[in-house]
Amino acid sequence: MSFFLDWWMLILLGVFGAFVSTKLKQKHRKIFTASYFIGILALFYIVSAAMYANLDFAMPLLNWLQDNGVYMGENQENIGFNFMINSGVFSFDVEGGPSSHPTILFVSILLFATYSFWLLLGLKMFKFKKIA
């Protein structure tokens, strides 16, 4: 997960969750929708924050991505941070970790704060398409 990839994955997961909820009985929709959105957001926050902070439990995923050709930056110490910023697509020079770049840290916090918006947007997009 990365800042470049997360927003569209969250939108697609919102559309998927909205689609699945329409297949449920009315009394189960609210419970499913709330559980689904909390679960998806928790997953994205935990994995993305772990990558951003280079936590040990994110390393197997990062190593797998790197082994499969995803660009992780030159600095192997901060591959999670580099991946979150560059998304395996860009090659911005971000030597050091998050604490070395206060501006990037601030922008990253703002981007993390938008995750629920993207997920809810996916839900609204499905409902709008269904009506139209």
Question: Main attributes?
Answer:
132 residues, mainly alpha, 6 helices
Report on this model:
70% of the residues lie in helices and 0% in strands. It has 132 residues and is mainly alpha-helical. The mean pLDDT is 82.
Largest sheet: none
User: Count of helices?
Assistant: 6
Q: Beta fraction of the residues? A: under 5%
Q: Distance between the terminal alpha carbons, to the nearest Å?
A: 32 Å
Number of strands: 0
- What are the secondary-structure elements, in order, as H or E? HHHHHH
Low-confidence spans: none
Q: Given the helix and strand composition, which structural class is it?
A: mainly alpha
Topology at a glance:
Elements: H1 3-22, H2 26-52, H3 59-67, H4 79-86, H5 102-113, H6 115-131
Quickly describe the structure.
With 132 residues, this protein is an all-alpha fold. It has one domain (3-131). It has helices at residues 3-22, 26-52, 59-67, 79-86, 102-113, 115-131.
